[in-house]
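Table S2 (continued). Query chain:
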Amino acid sequence: MASTDRPTTAVVERASVSDIPELITVWWDAFGSEHMQRIFPQTPDGRIWLERAFKQFFAPVKGPDELKTECLIVRSPDTGIPVAIAIYRIVPEGYDTAKQTWRARWPAVDDLPDFSDAAVDEFFSRMEKAHAYVLGNRGHVFLEVLGTMATFQKRGYGTALVKWGTDLADQLGVECYLDASPAGKPLYEAHGYVEQDVPAIIDNQSSASMLRPKKLQA
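Corresponding output:
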C-alpha cells in the first residue's frame, strides 16, 4: 500500500454534476467529526441537502455582477475518483452583503427533519459576521470549503487546491479570505494568509478568520 505521506502530482479540475455522489463521499469523510455530524447529518436527509447544494453550485451564473461558485476536485491518480474538494466563491466588487448570507449560498433545511435550522444558522452566522467585518463589500476570492479524504492526505492535494485560488486572486488583483480550522491554519499561512483580529465582534470563535492581501503589481 502506498504511503499517505508520499507527495504526488495533483491535477485540479472543475467538478461536474456526474461527480456529485463522489463529492458527497469526500464531504462525509473529510467532515465526519461528531460536531460536524450534529450540524450536517450523514443521513438520507443529509445526502439530499448535499445533492441540492452541489446542483446549486453547478447552476449557471445569472450575470457578470453576481456571485460565482467554483467547485473543484482532485482525483485519485489510481481510480479517477474525486478524493479532495474545494468550493470557492468569487465575490464581485461592491456585491450586496445581503446576498452573501449562508441562506443565499446554501439550500434551505426547513423540509429536512434531520437538520436543525438553528444549528446550521449558528454554524454559519459567526463566520459570516467576521467575514463581513474584515472585507465589507470588497471584491475577493472566498475559499469556503476545503477537504481531503483521510487516506489521501499529505499528498499535496489541499495545497494544489489552495494555490488554485491564490493564483486566481492574483490574476484578478483581489484579496483572498477563508475561515481556518486549527489543523488547516499552517497550510493557509504558507500561502500568504494572515489571521485577522476579530474577537471584538465574535465571542468564542472556533475558526480563524484569515485574509491574504492583494498581490502588489510590479
